[in-house]
Amino acid sequence: MTYEPEKSDPSILARKPTNKSGRSEAESVERREGAEGNTDERRTRRTLSRERVSSGLDRVRERARQEKKERFTALLHHVTADQLRAAFSWLKRDAAPGVDGITWQEYGQNLEVNLADLHARLHRGAYRAQPSRRKFIPKEDGRQRPLGIASLEDKIVQRAVVEVLNA
Known about the structure:
single chain; 5 helices; 34% helix; 2 strands; two-stranded antiparallel sheet; mainly alpha; 7% strand
């Protein structure tokens, strides 16, 4: 019985180079053809939340790669309202409230207005983090472990800033 060559995949997979690549009789590695589709999107990267990163963050990333000792002192303007919304959705719904006593459900009742206000305060420099609520958890040996619980807005800003820094 004879088999016809496969027609579905014209690409040739690259082979592992031999250990003795200096010899003339060693086989060379065959190149693989380029990928189809989505090749024009090389410049935009994805963050952990799988959202596209802005071109401004791409420039920051490139600068950070080129100048290893460069210090970035102003990255907060890269935090967008969409990132704040995504950060809000990443938070635990049943997490303990912070000093302000606002829960995830309460903040979400008027989400768009709250996020617009938070975004505006961030960009004009009026946002100030609130103090953490201190809670003590008993350990097995009788001592207590301190735990700091951030307010909901602080958690949202922290998560959005993590996305910017990861990008």
